[in-house]
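Bumping with the actual sequence this time:
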Amino acid sequence: MASNERSLDADGTLSDETELARAIEENEAELAELLQLLTVAEELAADLTPELRETVRENREPIRELRMAFEREETLVLLQKVGEESDTLIELLDILAVSKELSDDLVPELQVAIRENREVIERVRLALESEETIILLEKLGDNTETLAEMLDLLDATHELAMDLTPELRDVAQDNRNVIRDLRMAAAGFADAHEDADVDMYELGRNAGNMIALVETMGDPKFTNVVDASIEGLTQDDPEPVGLIGLTKALFDADVRRALGRLLAAARALGSTSIEESDRQER
């Protein structure tokens, strides 16, 4: 390149005036618009400067308080937490927006419902304000654990009943005749009780005595004695015994033992009869 068209000085800037003039000529429109914007900005700044100065003077104290508030450690910590939880904050804001829209939609419906049920709500309020309701709520509060246990028990009982109902229905159907007979027996027992005027206490004592008698009869000792007696009584052709044979038999140990048992039974039977007579006399 020729030195008279373009040259650089020591700091690397253009020194050729023709190059500068050419650049200004090429950007004439942009430079004119820029100068116009600078003029407008200067005029706007001149108009706003007194207002801004007055605004700053009037709000100097609030600005200072705001600056001090933002410089506090709590505010910095809060801003830091807000920054860290920005995603959660955005989700909460979205939920709040949806909730507001939902509430705006529900408010007219709720107003209509309240207007239509005003009398019912008034009665419910009066019922809840009564002393009995307050006492009931206090008792429920004092027995919440017991109430929870009862509810759990009711749930378990309900489930058990639901499980057992088919089985009980089948059992009732299979034993319908037996149940009918037991019902008839109970009705007959009730009629007999009315006709005979049975003492239920004595009936219970007699039933207990019968059970004790059956238990005694089941004793091996008693059954052995009965078996031996039946065996002796059912002999086909026992040998006839006279007075001399009876006297000889008294020397037999088995015969004497049998006679002792008979005498003990007779003695016990006699004492039982005496006790029964004394009891009746008293």
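The tokens above came from a reply further down the thread. Residues 1-12 have pLDDT under 50 and may be disordered.
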